[in-house]
Amino acid sequence: MRKILFSEKYGRNIIWLMLSGFFLKLGAKENYLGEIIIPEDNYLFNLDETHLDENYLNYNKLHFVILDGAVQHLNDQRLKKIKKETKIYYVGKFDNYWGKIENSELLYSNNCNDQREILNKIKCKFPFFFKKYLLKKFFTSFSGIKNLKLLSNHLGISDKYVYYGYIKPTSDHLNKFKNILKFDEKDINKFFYKQSSFNEVKKQIKELCNLKDNLMSKLSLKDYPYLNELLLFLIRNILCNFLKGKKNFLIYDGKGGNSNFNAYEMFFGNKHTYLDFGSKVGYDYLYPRSALLELSKRKTVRFYCEEIFFNLNESEASLYLEERADSFFRKLSI
Q1: Quick one: angle between helices 314-331 and 198-216, nearest 10?
Q2: Among 58, 112, 174, 285, which is most exposed with the fewest C-beta within 10 angstroms?
Q3: Torsional sign, CA 79, 85, 89, 91
Q4: Which helix (H) or strand (E) holds 230?
Q5: One domain for residues 155 and 7
Q6: Tally of domains within the chain
Q7: Which helix (H) or strand (E) holds 201?
Q8: Which residues have CB under 8 Å from 149's CB, separation 6+?
Q9: 3-state secondary structure at position 1
């Protein structure tokens, strides 16, 4: 039913593809029901399915979208079974990995001006789709009552700095990292505690960069995507744990989607300033969440870590991350 109601033939997160300009590149159109019609002889693999639909063999222009970075690309079994050349579009910029993958490109532009132009074009070209997206936003807004306390805080009178997302890796997620990266759990758990001063943040940054160097010295290149994803999680934890509990900050961990609060697709909340810690799977300048914030014209403060961080040695990486964190906190008047 929701495939028809919300034009989700290609997956629940079809809006992420739309906002990237993917359907513009493809030369897609919409019908009067807001359903996306891609050009003849093109095939887009469904975003949500885990089994391979053999119907793709009837097409010559194949498109596969990776929304969860290099780790998804390494583990998605469908990719290993596809027998024809396929174009890959990905979220999760990580040139250490994607530079070696043929026929692949970033899903989103790295240019803010390009993204604004894309938003204008897709709104004009797909008006029925966006009318149905308003219906989805209505249902998403209504679903907020599942967490009434959080919803009331979000709707409160005062404006806040807010972040709702996946902060601390779940036990299952952490165990997958542990099995591949072979780290001692106590070396990771220390990053999940609250800090009260920027000096404590700097101490954790130094420990993080030491961990990065130690693990990199033991890993093969094929495991770098897992290390990179873990590091991005830990950076987010360090920053969020410093901000939690501070006046006028609302930081909420959705626990990997198990307790999700999708404020980014709700009607209300424009009075707040949204914290953007970047993609959890790579170094994209623009990615689905930033595109949603731009679509809704939400105020944002961005922490942006470039891929150079991953390639720097321990002392240089520590200095780089400290400067980025200090710049971010100064924007927040901390």
Answers
A1: 150
A2: 58
A3: positive
A4: helix 224-243
A5: no
A6: 2
A7: helix 198-216
A8: none
A9: coil
Q: In what order do the strands lie in the sheet with 42-44?
A: 42-44, 61-66, 86-90, 104-106
Q: What pLDDT does residue 144 have? A: 83
pLDDT tens per residue across span 73-129: 999 999 999 999 999 999 999 999 999 999 999 999 988 899 999 999 999 999 999
State the pLDDT confidence band at 12, using cuts at 50, 70 and 90. very high
Q: What is the mean pLDDT of residues 298-315?
A: 97
Q: Which long-range contacts (CB under 8 A, 24 or more apart) does 113-117 make?
A: 115/286, 115/291, 115/294, 116/294
Residue 150 has pLDDT above 90, yes or no: no
Q: What is the mean pLDDT of the chain?
A: 94
Chain Cα centroid distance, residue 44: 21
Range of the domain at 101: 2-135
**CA dist 196 to 203, 212, 245, 318, 329, Å?**
12, 24, 10, 19, 13
Q: Are 203 and 250 in the same domain?
A: yes
Q: Is residue 256 over pLDDT 80? A: no
Least confident of 45-49, 189-193, 230-234: 189-193
Return the H-helix or E-strand segment holding 63.
strand 61-66
| 65 strand-pairing partners | 89
**Tokens standing for 64?**
């596969």
* 251: helix, strand or coil: strand
> 73 and 176 share a domain?
no
Overall pTM surpassing 0.90 (yes/no)? yes
Which of 135, 161, 182 terminates a domain? The answer is: 135
β-bridge partners, 174: none
Residue 140 belongs to some domain of the structure: no
Same domain, 127 and 196: no
The pLDDT value recorded for residue 5 is 78
The residue type of 225 is P
